[in-house]
Amino acid sequence: xxxxxxxxxxxxxxxxxxxxxxxxxxxxxxxxxxxxxxxxxxxxxxxxxxxxxxxxxxxxxxxxxxxxxxxxxxxxxxxxxxxxxxxxxxxxxxxxxxxxxxxxxxxxxxxxxxxxxxxxxxxxxxxxxxxxxxxxxxxxxxxxxxxxxxxxxxxxxxxxxxxxxxxxxxxxxxxxxxxxxxxxxxxxxxxxxxxxxxxxxxxxxxxxxxxxxxxxxxxxxxx
Length: 223
Hints:
By secondary structure, the protein is an alpha/beta fold. It has two domains: 2-162, no CATH class; 165-221, no CATH class. 47% of the residues lie in helices and 15% in strands. It is built from seven helices and eight strands, in the order ββααβββαβααβααβ. A hairpin with a 7-residue loop joins β1 and β2 (13-16). α1 (19-37) crosses α4 (149-162), α2 packs parallel to α3 and α3 crosses α4.
């Protein structure tokens, strides 16, 4: 972990982690949380446990917020207290259960990793939300540009929480062995489609989320 200058000029230090460290921390924290509060770790991680994880780190969580159509989540950072998290009301519709889970993981990344940076950066007497508050658009929940490090990290953390690296490595290896191969697998191959389907089923995530996660871990390749 390193603290660097924020490239976008925000009054915080950029929190830099290698992806391997993010994976290790995410898997450890979700396993420890479920061991303590849910009787042990299991996949898929229950949505209620994702909600409880945010509640443990946030000052307030609104699961039925009236957000604009293009916004799935929103986090207000404060200088003097824990953050406030808003989740779009429409995600409570069962049709959006996967998007809800991914959004909860994404916002947890903000409250766990990023909110403490804002609390350390501002004057203690300043009680208004830090500027800017953080709006998470639906097109950045899973994929975000790397130049916006906070959004990119939150998207990566969401995948690392819902789809732990150690399990994905095991499953991808097992399926690759069907044809005496090893990862990375070509993303358009039957083996890759089998890996994606297993992750969608075992982790309760969308096809997009599973594909992005596997590509980032180097278990699939687009070449």
